[in-house]
Design a protein that fits this description.
Blueprint (H helix, E strand, L loop, with lengths): L18 E4 L5 E6 L5 H9 L3 H8 L8 H8 L6 E8 L2 E11 L12 E8 L8 H15 L4 E6 L4 H8 L5 E6 L2 E7 L4 H23 L3 E5 L8 H12 L4 E5 L9 E2 L2 E4 L11 E4 L6 H10 L4 E4 L9 H16 L3 E3 L5 E4 L6 E4 L7 E8 L2 H13 L4 E6 L8 H10 L5 E6 L5 H12 L4 E5 L20 H10 L3 E3 L2 H13 L7 E6 L2 H13 L3 E2 L3 E2 L6 H13 L5 E6 L2 E2 L5 E2 L4 H12 L6 E5 L5 H10 L5 E5 H9 L28 E5 L10 E2 L2 H21 L15 H13 L7 E2 L2 H9 L8 E3 L3 H11 L3 E5 L13 E5 L2 H15 L2 H4 L1 E5 L5 E10 L3 E8 L2 H4 L4 E5 L4 H9 L18 H17 L3 E11 L4 E3 L2 E5 L17
Parallel strand pairs: 5-6, 9-10, 9-13, 10-12, 13-14, 14-15, 18-19, 18-20, 20-21, 21-22, 23-24, 23-25, 23-26, 26-29, 29-32
Antiparallel strand pairs: 1-2, 2-3, 3-4, 4-5, 6-8, 7-8, 11-12, 16-17, 16-19, 27-28, 30-31, 33-43, 34-37, 35-36, 35-37, 38-39, 38-41, 39-40, 41-42, 41-43
Helix pairs in contact: 6-11, 8-9, 10-14, 11-12, 14-20, 15-20, 16-17, 17-18, 23-24, 27-28
Length: 972
């Protein structure tokens, strides 16, 4: 919305303040600045506010706004006077305004840093979190304009408004003056205010997905009279699944006399339906979708599933149509799955929703599935069905223009029917938020991800999202840091999901192997070693083993304290007549299920060859087993919601650690125990190949280890604070950026980089320029022999293999000779830019880097210098800010890590000093986002201490942080 000429030309309309938000009940609304064009909207809004709310706002009866009031509340300079409105369907439902004031409470301009703030929310929309959302956004606006405090006068009886201020998490002061409560809020974000904001975000976004998956009524718009067609197919699938709500068929082409279609009421428009419609499935051509969306919005539909194609997957024009579709739907408070979606499924007995193109609704289970591809969704549904597995929910988001994998994680975190979340993703619209949500969700239930389009260098057609520049290997490392189980294929995702949904997590990597085939046992043993597990020698039951023999051997293995998991291998056994008994697997399945039912809580997987129906029999046997009790500690769930590094290490049952750790907190008084009658508790997964079973088990072992470690969060050592000059570094950065004419920033010189890094306790060994042999000799005399002579030309930097570095020059003669050799071989000094540097103690050459990606945030990287990192890609990564645990894991997670710990009899190096360096660099880039890249190369780590021989730093205006501001839905 553009400003009118009446507004100040010096402060243009701030369109970056516009935002779509999800409210507490899951509906959406638009927040935007108020303009002079809003006079009629403001008057209409005020007329719908109760007298009591008006009294609370103005401290007196105030039945209507005067012309002067309307002018004052719609004319702002967007600096000292700002008003924001929350709109649905273009109409106001809430407003907030601040006016800058001085110490006496009178109107003021900068540098005054306090403002008076007041809210007004329509009574019909109170309780939806409107005021809370407005407070977040008006506080962000105020901080941007240099305001540091809000003052508010509230009547003591206005408990709702007092609660909004109290629950915001900001530091506040309260006093009672002249019959009103005087509140002062410091607007600087705090750890508490950020936690409050993210908690509200989680509940609202989870609720918005829950409204889509559990509607009370569904209308299929575009259901045709002829058989076939997308709309008619969805309608029939809804009916076949036994949807428990009301169903309607809507098509403007229906004859006026048509009353029903497939037994459900048929209507030409939503306006003909007398009852509330919660969900609309739109299956009409793209050019007719806007009309359908408007019809839905005007009749109170809460959410949309848009199956129609012809959007961003068709190019630039389609992308603009897609953006307009999202804008239109959100303007009415609706969220969208799609467009180009395959549909959604909810197998809960109270819902039984199949609003998708899947002809058969999957069985009820404990797996939640999200996919950005309809084709992959079909394959996953089919694969799970063949393996006898069920789902709790399914979303195929198509172009995921609105509802995304992040929203699904928010929903999965709270959904009691989901024990494992599986996601097929082709793009990450907000990687920073994804890792935060994934870490929190993974603390209570497994998250398994397949990332498609890893190497294409661009987003898939239809996905209009920001492109991250970080390589896929880095993305994978960051997912692992967040506890995500990342696998390469959808087959591996199903394999891991089956094990995690049906079996407890292993307490360690020790694996018992038993079966009736020595060869299959050996293959399983080798696969375990390849995946880093610790298998025991296979137990061969011989081909004559009966199902009872399997049961006895499995029960013994489960009772053995020296193993943490069991893999059963089975081939058709030999019957009494000497012939192989392929059977249907029923007898073996029952034997294994009985053994598991009476054993300890250890995961069990089965590898079978040519035993027909074993997987289905195991699934059927598990479905009749007694439900397992699950102890759910609400305090632990609360900790997981507020900190991304807490796990429920003490719970038992599906997808939880099998044994408590020493670090586990004792049970709290608010712990509650509930028996969940899951459809298939304790389901034993079956695999047709040893490698697949072992790979799934290995992922479970690593995830369980992450859960145990995450239960005790890492920390940043306090000693760093005493040796860091944050203010001094900030002053240096400001001075350097003020002299940079390029808005993209500038690289620092060697001396500038040394000075900045020194403020954070990172000492870089100095170098002196050597433009000629005499200067080199003088430099060596100042630094002291032995010295190194090296080029700093970009094409030769750190290239000892090309002869650009000469080491251990013990005296002047050696230095002059090396200087001559260097220039004779590589070129003139003006081209080589040689420098002299004092030699460092011998050690292992490493490289430490930090960089900021606009989408993923700051990333800390570590590897060995040279071929290991550059040629083999042996580099580890962690998100900033890094904790002491992150730093320790970072240097131990590269494949060449043994070199640091005394490989082949060499002396171990000072890894403690290396970890401290990583923490200092992490603090630097976290404290100063203007530091967009740092490379320390090489860092020579000796048995005692380390030496940073080279450093490069680049400064630039910091990229926008979309995770620290007020809540908002993305606009792609």
């Amino acid at each position: 919305m553009e400003p009118t000429p009446e507004q100040s030309p010096h402060h243009a309309y701030p369109d970056h303040w516009e935002a779509d938000v999800v409210l507490r009940d899951g509906g959406t609304a638009r927040i935007r600045p108020i303009t002079t064009d809003d006079a009629e909207r403001l008057v209409s809004f005020y007329e719908q506010v109760s007298d009591e709310s008006k009294y609370y706002r103005f401290f007196a009866p105030y039945p209507r706004l005067s012309d002067r009031d309307v002018h004052r509340f719609t004319h702002h300079d967007y600096v000292d006077r700002v008003g924001l409105a929350v709109t649905i369907g273009g109409e106001f439902i809430g407003t907030v305004r601040y006016d800058r004031i001085d110490d006496t409470g009178r109107p003021a301009s900068a540098p005054a840093d306090e403002a008076e703030v007041a809210f007004l929310v329509q009574d019909a929309h109170q309780g939806r979190g409107v005021a809370s959302a407005l407070l977040e956004h008006i506080a962000a606006v105020a901080r941007e304009r240099g305001i540091r405090r809000f003052a508010a006068e509230v009547l003591p009886a206005n408990n709702k408004m007092i609660k909004v201020f109290r629950d915001g998490g900001y530091t506040q002061r309260r006093s009672f003056e002249d019959g009103s409560v005087h509140l002062t809020l410091d607007l600087e974000p705090t750890e508490k205010s950020l936690a409050v904001q993210r908690g509200r975000e989680q509940r609202a976004e989870a609720r918005s997905v829950q409204r889509l998956l559990a509607p009370g009524s569904v209308a299929v718009i575009g259901a045709g009279r002829n058989h076939g067609g997308v709309g008619r197919t969805v309608l029939r699938n809804l009916l076949a699944a036994g949807f428990t709500g009301r169903t309607y068929a809507v098509n403007r082409a229906f004859d006026e006399g048509l009353a029903t279609l497939d037994g459900v009421p048929a209507h030409r428009s939503l306006g003909e339906i007398d009852e509330q419609v919660d969900l609309a499935v739109i299956a009409v051509p793209a050019h007719r979708v806007p009309e359908a969306v408007a019809d839905c919005g005007e009749h109170g539909v809460q959410g949309l599933v848009v199956l129609s194609a012809g959007y961003a997957e068709r190019g630039a024009d389609g992308r603009e149509l897609q953006r307009e579709l999202v804008r239109q739907a959100r303007s009415y408070g609706m969220r969208i799955i799609g467009p180009n979606a395959f549909g959604i499924i909810n197998t809960a007995e109270s819902v039984r929703l199949n609003a998708s193109l899947a002809p058969e609704s999957p069985a009820r289970g404990r797996i939640g599935l999200f996919t950005q591809s309809g084709a992959i969704g079909i394959a996953l549904l089919s694969g799970l069905h063949r393996r006898g597995a069920g789902l709790s929910s399914f979303i195929s988001a198509g172009n995921r223009a609105d509802v995304s994998g992040n929203d699904f994680l928010q929903y999965s975190f709270e959904d009691p029917d989901t024990d494992v979340a599986l996601l097929y993703l082709e793009s990450l619209g907000n990687p920073r938020k994804f890792t935060r949500l994934a870490r929190r969700t993974a603390a209570v239930k497994p998250v398994v991800v397949v990332k498609g389009a890893r190497h294409s260098g661009s987003t898939p057609p239809g996905h209009a999202v920001p492109v991250s520049r970080i390589p896929d290997a880095t993305v994978s490392a960051l997912m692992r840091q967040a506890g995500v189980i990342r696998v390469d294929t959808v087959t591996e995702m199903v394999d891991a999901g089956l094990l995690l949904a049906g079996q407890p997590l292993p307490a360690g990597p020790r694996v018992a192997i038993l079966g009736n085939s020595e060869s299959l046992g050996l293959l399983t043993y080798d696969a375990c070693l390849a995946e880093g597990l610790r298998p025991r020698p296979p137990i061969d039951l011989t081909t004559a083993a009966s199902p009872q023999d399997f049961r006895d051997a499995l029960a013994e293995a489960l009772a053995d304290g020296t193993c943490d998991a069991v893999i059963v291998t089975a081939i058709p056994w030999v019957g009494e007549n000497g012939e192989a008994e392929t059977g249907d697997g029923q007898v073996l399945a029952e034997a294994l299920t009985k053994a598991v039912a009476g054993g300890s809580a250890k995961p069990v997987a089965v590898v079978h060859v040519e035993i027909g129906g074993l997987a289905e029999a195991l699934a059927a046997a598990s479905s009749t087993a007694a439900p397992r009790p699950r102890t759910v500690t609400s305090a632990a769930r609360t900790r997981a919601a507020t900190t991304a590094t807490t796990a429920r290490a003490t719970t038992t049952g599906t997808g939880t650690p099998a044994a408590p750790e020493a670090t586990t907190a004792p049970a709290t008084p608010d712990a509650t125990t509930a028996t969940e009658a899951a459809p298939r508790p304790g389901r034993i997964p079956a695999y047709p190949a040893a490698e697949r079973a072992v790979r799934a088990l290995a992922e479970a072992v690593k995830y369980a280890q992450w859960r145990r470690q995450a239960a005790v969060p890492g920390k940043v050592p306090e000693f760093l604070d005493d040796t860091i000059d944050e203010a001094g570094a900030a002053a240096l950065i400001e001075a350097q950026l003020s002299t940079a004419p390029d808005p993209r920033g500038r690289p620092l010189t060697h001396d500038e980089a040394r000075e900045l890094l020194g403020r954070y306790g990172v000492d870089v060994r100095p170098t002196l320029p050597a433009p000629d042999p005499e200067a080199a000799v003088d430099a060596a005399a100042r630094l002291g022999y032995p010295v190194a002579l090296k080029t700093t030309a970009p094409h030769l930097r750190h290239r000892a293999d090309l002869g650009g570095v000469r080491l251990d020059l013990a005296d002047e003669e050696a230095l002059r000779r090396a200087y001559g050799d260097l220039t004779d071989l590589l070129g003139k000094p003006a081209e080589l830019l040689p420098v002299v540097q004092a030699m460092a103690p011998r050690g292992v050459d490493t490289v430490v880097r930090a960089s900021i990606d606009a989408a993923a945030g700051a990333v800390l990287s570590f590897g060995l210098a040279g071929a290991p990192s550059e040629l083999l890609g042996d580099t580890a990564h962690r998100l900033v800010p890094a904790t002491d645990r992150d730093a320790a894991e970072l240097i131990r997670s590269i494949r060449a890590a043994p070199v640091l710990f005394g490989w082949r009899g060499s002396a171990p190096v000072d890894t403690a000093a290396l970890e401290e360096l990583l923490l200092r660099l992490s603090r630097l880039v976290d404290d100063h986002p203007e530091v967009v890249s740092v490379a320390l190369e090489p860092v020579v780590v000796a048995p005692q201490g380390l030496t940073v021989l080279g450093a490069s730093v680049r400064l630039a205006p910091p990229p926008a942080r979309n995770d620290l501001g007020p809540r908002r839905l993305p606009n792609y």
